[in-house]
Structures are given as C-alpha cells and as structure tokens.
Amino acid sequence: MTTEKLALTTTSPARKPRSEGGAGNPLAAELTRLLGPKKVLSNLSERLSYRFDAIQFGVTPLAVVLPESTEDVIVTVKAARRAGVSIVGRGAASGLSGGAAPMQPGVVISFTRLTRLDIFPERREAVAQPGVITLAVTEAARPHGLIYPPDPASFRTSTIGGNLGENAGGPLCFKYGVTGDYVTALDFVDAEGELHTLGRDAYDLAGLLIGSEGTLGLITSATLRLTPPPRFTRTLMAHFDEVGQAAEAVSAAIAAGAVPAKLEFMDGACTNAVEDYLQLGLPREAGAVLLVDTDGDDLETVEEERALVEAACLDAGGQVRRAEGEAEAAALWQARRSVSPALGRIRPQRMNEDIVVPRSVLPEVVRQIRALGDASGLKLVQFGHIGDGNLHPNILFDPRQESSEAVHRLAHQIALVAIRHGGVLSGEHGIGTMKRDFMRDAVDPETMTALWNVKRALDPAVALNPGKILPEQTDA
Ligand SMILES: Cc1cc2nc3c(=O)[nH]c(=O)nc-3n(C[C@H](O)[C@H](O)[C@H](O)COP(=O)(O)OP(=O)(O)OC[C@H]3O[C@@H](n4cnc5c(N)ncnc54)[C@H](O)[C@@H]3O)c2cc1C
Q1: Contact 47, 61 (CB under 8 A)
Q2: pLDDT class for 206, splitting at 50, 70, 90?
Q3: Is residue 56 within 6 Å of ligand 1 at its C-beta?
Q4: Start and end of every FAD-binding PCMH-type domain (predicted)?
C-alpha cells in the first residue's frame, strides 16, 4: 500500500511503470495463475486507468480482470473473496455518479470482452453479455425490423452491463420506458461466486439487481425485449420566455392526451452554451426551450399528437417551430445531443445532477435551483427529460480555481430542493459515491436499516462495490 501511494504521487512521465504482478502483488499473481496473463492487468500503469468513471476518481485496484467467459467471472470473484478484497464491476466507465470507481484496493472486473450478442427475431428478444455496447443491440436488431429503445445519450460507448447497473434512461424513455422495462431475464454471479439465472417473477430479484450499481451481484447476461420501430416521427421545437411556461405546456399537452416519444428541456444558459458551440440558430433570448418528438404507426395520429403539443405550447405563451422533414428534425436534435461537448468548453469539469420531481412543481424547482446557482457564484445550467420531471442541473467548474467543497455544497442544496418537493435523488445516473451522503436526507433511518439488511442478505461481507449508494451506519 505504501509503495502504491508513492507511485501515485510520483507522476514523472519519464518514470518507467513497474510491474506489480509478482511477489509484490500476490492477488494479481494468483489471478494470473488462475486465468492466464492475457486476462489480468497487474502493471501499475495499466491499473491506474481503472480507478475512475466519468465523474469520480477512486483508488487504484490491486488487479484488473478482463473476463472472457462467465466462468472467468466466477473464478475471479472466488479468488477475491479468498483474498478478502472488494470487487467492482465496470463497463465503459461512462457513469456519472462514481459507480465504477473503486473505493477500496481490490479487483476491478472489466466486462469489455464479454460482447456476445444474439438476436432472436421470432421472439423479439436479444441476449447480450454485459460488455455489449448499447447501440449495438439496435444496430443488430434493425435488419430484423426491431429496435432496443433505451437510449442514454452515451449509447455509443455505454455497455448493457453498465445500463443495467444504473437502470439507464434516455429521451425515449418517457414513452417507451427505461432499461429495466426491457429486461426479461438475467444471469448474475453473486458475492460468493455462484451463478444464478433469474426471470421477472415472484420477488423480482432481477428487478432488485437492476439499478443496484454492482453492489448486489455481477450481471453476466441479460435477455432484452425488442420492439418494432414506429413508422412515423414528427418533431417540433418551442421556446418560452420563462421555464414555468414550458412546464405548463408540458403538463397541458400530456393532460390533453399527448404521449410524446421525446420531451426534452434546456434552460437559457444551456441553450446559449450550445449556440456558442455550434451556431444552430437557437433562440438565445429564450428562458426555456422544449424539443419534442411524437411518433407511432398511424401518421394522422402522430400529427394530431404534435398539434396537441403545439397548441399547448402556444397557449402557454411559447413560440413554435415545426421541423419540415428529417434533415430539419435531425438539426434540431443536434442541439440536444451537443449539450455535453458544449458544456465541456465552458469548464473542464462538471457535476451532473439527476433529480426527479413531480411535473407540477417543475417551474418552482427550476427557479429555486437557478437562484441557488446564482448565489453560489458557480456556473450552473439545467436541462433534462422534462416529461418525466427528470432534471440535470449541471455545475460547471474548474478544480484549479473553484473549491470542490463549494461544488459539493451546491449539489447538496439541489438534492434538498428535490426532496422538499417530493422528488428523488436520481432518475437514471444512480447514487454511486456522488449522492451517497445525500441518502441520509432522502431516506429515514428505519428505511436505511432495511436497505442495509437487503445489501447484507446478498453480500454479507460487503465485498461488492463497497462505498456506493448506502452511507455507513454507525449502529449497524
Ligand atoms: C456524455 C454522457 C451522457 C450520458 N447520458 C446519459 C443518459 O442520457 N441517460 C443515462 O441513464 N445515463 C447517461 N449517462 C451516464 C452513463 O453513460 C450511464 O449510467 C451508463 O448506463 C453507464 O454505462 P457504462 O457501461 O459506462 O457503466 P459503468 O460506468 O462502467 O458502470 C456503471 C455502474 O454499473 C455497474 N456495473 C457495470 N457492469 C456491471 C455488471 N456487469 N453487473 C453489475 N453491475 C455492473 C458498475 O459497478 C457501476 O456501478 C451519460 C454519461 C455521459 C458521459
């Protein structure tokens, strides 16, 4: 451990990375003996890249295993348990709550080589190993006239294992549902290294595993439901002076019977960041922009639904632009897809909140968060899946100039706003390390004990992804 810390603080590029797979690292040596050298990373220089996800730095793992079969996962879990170290599952590490960042020195199991994907068109299902890239499922299903709807914006890089770990959502999830809604069965390796196959029946243990961020078991295969894509899609953009009008329009459209496929929101600061980046002709003066898709197999109904949304936007005081044709629709959606790179130009780091609140309180919540951002002196923008009440207030910061305490304080205040308004801490990014402390505000002590009891029932030694989701209990 001492040598590890020394190596981490000595960052001279001229220094040759040392191999620690031998006597100095008995765990890596044992895993190499069991699995062979090609599946185990024991060099410090290699292991260093496995200590973070998209938001959080953790500690350097003692060993990284790249399993090529479920049996390799079982062997690794059993070896880690014999050594008494923690086990962290990792997909593409695109997570935004610290889920894949190890908090203790142990083993990281990186699923990127488990990429088998089989499509069964006749039963409209795919069977995917955890390392399959999300978009690959739809790409493989499309020739059979099918798609896999869950569409996190990261779908070109994120994996099915990570999506199940976080129960990922995306713009299409308002109408079509989140990852968990598409899982009909899964295989997982438990904390003792035993393999189980689960359907979605009594007690729905599979449902418990989904969204558990690798803290209850490691998913080695998932059966996913596929659906035919809608034949028609229509798109519109609406902009408003004030976010309250946008929220009113959303509520009115849904109350009138519209179920848009996508219903996305960007506040004025976010719209301006995108416009600075790409000059798409977005309305810079707007307080809020909505992007909406309606879809279905009957063109008349799809257009009627778009008309309902349009009328609700106009009634709420908005201005509306219909996309005429696919090219214009694609240009409008480019604005939403460009949020991440646009924000990356403003500050090198961001903390991406993921609260969900009832739609009825959205205007108040967005205003309160805006006021908190202004008072903090930090740069804050808001966007999200407004149809679900899922907001992503993003705190943009430069760690060289802005204190991480101030960022954490603002994130905590935002979490409290959500809780006070009957909301929850996470819609799709998970709790991880980022919102773990805030769980004490969201969950009463009795419920926390119940959650710890579930965790310990499945993982008595707290070996699976420790330091995530549940804060330590002093009396536990
Ligand atoms: C630019 C950008 C945009 C994003 N947009 C969205 C979005 O629209 N919607 C959304 O939901 N998320 C979004 N995310 C967050 C992230 O992409 C998702 O959480 C995604 O599901 C993580 O997948 P991953 O493969 O990167 O998982 P990782 O980050 O590697 O892991 C995520 C969690 O799953 C666990 N895990 C990984 N594999 C397994 C396994 N086989 N078994 C059990 N647990 C496992 C890990 O331990 C960790 O806790 C975005 C991220 C970025 C960077």
Answers
A1: yes
A2: very high
A3: no
A4: 57-229
Given the CA of residue 96, which atom of ligand 1 is nearest to it?
15
pLDDT of residue 473: 80
pLDDT at 382 > cutoff 60: yes
Q: How sure is the predictor about 23, in pLDDT bands with cuts at 50, 70 and 90?
A: low
Is 21's pLDDT higher than 50? Answer: no
**pLDDT reported for residue 359:** 86
Q: What pLDDT, in 10s, does the model give residues 235-254?
A: 999 999 998 899 889 989 99
What is the average per-residue pLDDT within 395-424? Answer: 95
Ligand 1 in reach of 162 Cβ (< 6 A)? yes
Query: In this predicted model, what pLDDT tens digit does every residue of 319-348 receive, in sequence order?
Result: 999 999 999 999 899 999 899 899 999 999
Which of the listed residues 72, 96, 129, 164 should we mutate to test ligand 1's pocket, taking the one with most ligand atoms within 8 A of CB?
96
Q: Residues 6 or more apart from 420 whose CB is under 8 A from it? A: none
Domains of the chain plus CATH, in order, are: 2-113 (3.30.43.10), 117-225 (3.30.465.10), 232-340 (3.30.70.3450), 347-463 (3.30.70.2740)
User: What is the distance in A from the centroid of ligand 1 to the CA of 468?
Assistant: 14
CA distances from 160 to 105, 147, 169, 175 (A): 25, 14, 12, 20
Tokens of 370: 């805006």
Centroid of ligand 1 to alpha carbon of 243 (angstroms):
29
Give Cβ neighbours of residue 457 (< 8 Å, ≥ 6 apart): none
**One-letter identity of residue 350:** R
CB-ligand 1 contact for 152 (6 Å cutoff)? yes
Q: Provide the token pair at 428.
A: 């799709």
Q: Which atom of ligand 1 is nearest to the CA of 89?
A: 47
In this predicted model, what pLDDT tens digit does every residue of 447-465 receive, in sequence order? 999 999 999 999 999 999 9
